UniProtKB/TrEMBL annotation:
Keywords: Oxidoreductase
Organism taxonomic ancestry: Bacteria, Pseudomonadati, Pseudomonadota, Betaproteobacteria, Burkholderiales
Identification of the protein by name: 2-alkenal reductase
Any single Pfam family the record assigns to this protein: ADH_N_2
Domain Enoyl reductase (ER): from-to ranges: 17-328
Length: 331
């Protein structure tokens, strides 16, 4: 029998998560049933939304049940099939979670073309993070050429795509990231017009210099002090796509200092969950994959090795230690 190593959530975090919240299990895989497909997961995606699922609180999705495999997207290859539509060698993505193998009836598998786009990119720029960026920018911010768009966590899996798409739309793009190295990458490699290192302080002054004509669209991934600073520079009738507020994921307060500016500037602020907009996924995924294949959309990955290192890599992601998309290689 084949052993399927997997990471279980075994306790709820109190504040910042720790390694003790997770457990490495190694059950045997059952025999494949009629109509089922066995997939060997090559890559596992780690994403900030997983932190919210660890809490037993009311949210847009049910909490992760204890003593079960942590939720997560995977990319891999069919290695055995008793399903007529799937053959060994087919490359697929699915939501198998933090484990080395997955068994499916085929309904949750999506076929991917690894001849055009690297497999791991289907968990990042050509996957859910990319669609998140695409939807928030195009459907909520809806930028016009000549406008200024700002994005927090600009070097991350979502923010990096937001900025590149905004540049393609003819906008001035200002990124906000943590550290000189990340900011240099955002400007020199991704092509943003400017990037502000929030760790250096003086956010208000830096935003004034980087966006002298104010900000028309803002893609929010962080919240907290970063959002407070951006609010001071929004133009009238600006739009905010509220994707995440990682500053408050561990229960820290993230109260706004100047909420009246939302009214004063008649700001449109819309929170969104990209899985509630599945109708746009085919168009977005096609555009993103085409851009990557053409070398017009760049991305960066931080790669951990082995399922046993997924918890530590996830905790590092929450602390901002990753650069670009955080992935775990499972083979």
């Amino acid at each position: 029998m084949t052993i399927n190593r997997q990471i279980l959530l075994v306790s709820r975090p109190k504040g910042e998560p720790t390694l003790e919240n997770f457990h490495l299990a190694a059950p045997e895989l059952p025999e494949l049933g009629e109509g089922q497909v066995l997939v060997r997961n090559f890559y596992l995606s780690l994403d900030p939304y997983m932190r919210g699922r660890m809490n037993d609180t009311k949210s847009y999705a049910p909490p992760q049940p204890l003593d079960t495999v942590m939720i997560g997207a995977t990319a891999g290859e069919v290695i055995e099939s008793r399903h007529p539509d799937w053959q060994p060698g087919d490359a697929v993505t699915a939501m198998f979670g933090w484990q080395e193998y997955g068994i499916s009836d085929g309904s949750n598998l999506r076929r991917i073309d690894v001849a055009r786009v690297p497999m791991s990119a289907y968990l990042g720029a050509a996957g859910m993070p990319g669609v998140t960026a695409w939807y928030g920018l195009k459907r909520i911010i809806a930028p016009k050429a000549g406008e200024t768009v700002a994005v927090s966590a600009a070097s991350g899996a979502v923010g990096s795509v937001v900025g590149q798409l905004a540049k393609r739309a003819g906008c001035r793009v200002v990124g906000i990231a943590g550290g000189e190295h990340k900011c240099a990458y955002v400007v020199e490699t991704l092509g943003f017009d400017a990037c502000i290192d929030y760790k250096a302080g003086h956010l208000d002054e830096a935003l004034r210099d980087a966006a002298p004509d104010g900000i028309d669209g803002y893609f929010e991934n962080v919240g907290g002090a970063v959002l407070d600073a951006v609010l001071m520079h929004l133009n009238a009738h600006s739009r905010i796509a509220l994707c995440g507020m990682i500053a408050g994921y561990n229960g820290d307060p993230i109260a706004l200092k100047h909420p009246a500016l939302l009214l004063t500037n008649r700001v449109r602020l819309e929170g969104f969950i990209v899985t509630e907009h599945m109708d746009v996924w085919p168009q977005a995924l096609t555009e993103l994959a085409d851009a990557i294949a053409a070398g017009e959309l760049r991305y960066r990955e931080t790669m951990a090795q082995g399922i046993e290192n997924a918890p530590a890599a996830f905790l590092g992601l929450l602390r901002g230690e990753n650069f670009g998309k955080q992935i775990v290689r499972l083979v």
